[in-house]
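Lecture notes, part 5. Sequence design as translation. It can be helpful to think of inverse folding as translation between two languages: the language of shapes and the language of residues. The source text, in structure tokens, appears below.
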């Protein structure tokens, strides 16, 4: 039996594109389509290797990116008028519209969080306890990026299908819960510190973390984009 985690419970293909645009620090109006397409496909391969259930929208977007990339690589024939329409135009418009929607949704979530009493007492809302810096929620793709770095230090063992007989995701979830109940919040790397260094063990730990985030038992936050990721325990009061 395979442990499946639905990716659309977290974020969609436009979220991944926004993440890659920020990661590469490029102008949203002038997306380097070849680079973004290559990185987008790499993320899909990693999600597939992690046995995450990839929704069809991600594959449709991948096909769209490849098509745009192909159109931009087409040479202009001698005497042929230069194409007026940028093949990226519709995609850029789609990303900009989604960005507006996401920022509005994030603002509403922030307002709700301020009024909420669901945070544990030792988690000062929206601020890092040590530095006092404001905290922002971490996206799934930032977690994947951080996890990719963790895997680089794992023992060389090929990815294989994660099964419940081999690794208990539920047990890993309990381990993370216990650690957070003891400390309140921890750096992402600390979650993997106690795990065996095999890729299977690390992957099961990462899937357990994603499941806890989906269940809204924990939240991943950072002081700024691409900063260290800290995991906080959320407790309903």
């Amino acid at each position: 039996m395979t442990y499946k985690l639905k990716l659309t419970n977290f974020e969609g293909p436009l979220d991944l594109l926004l993440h890659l645009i920020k990661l590469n620090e490029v102008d949203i109006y002038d997306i380097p389509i070849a680079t973004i397409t290559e990185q987008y496909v790499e993320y899909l391969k990693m999600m597939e290797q992690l046995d995450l259930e990839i929704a069809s929208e991600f594959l449709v977007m991948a096909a769209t990116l490849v098509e745009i990339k192909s159109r931009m690589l087409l040479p202009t024939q001698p005497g042929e008028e230069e194409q007026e329409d940028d093949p990226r135009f519709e995609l850029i418009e789609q990303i900009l519209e989604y960005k507006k929607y996401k920022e509005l949704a994030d603002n509403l979530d922030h307002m709700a969080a301020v009024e909420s009493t669901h945070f544990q007492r030792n988690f000062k809302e929206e601020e890092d306890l040590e530095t006092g810096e404001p905290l922002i929620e971490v996206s799934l793709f930032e977690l994947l990026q951080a996890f990719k770095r963790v895997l680089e230090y794992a023992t060389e063992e090929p990815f294989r299908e994660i099964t419940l007989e081999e690794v208990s995701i539920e047990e890993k979830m309990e381990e993370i819960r216990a650690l957070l109940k003891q400390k309140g919040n921890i750096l992402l790397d600390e979650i993997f510190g106690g795990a065996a260094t095999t890729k299977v063990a690390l992957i099961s730990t990462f899937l357990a973390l994603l499941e806890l985030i989906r269940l809204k038992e924990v939240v991943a936050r950072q002081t700024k984009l691409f900063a260290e990721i800290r995991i906080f325990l959320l407790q309903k009061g």
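The translated text above is only one of many valid answers, since several sequences can fold into similar shapes. Residues 120-125, 161-165 have pLDDT under 50 and may be disordered.
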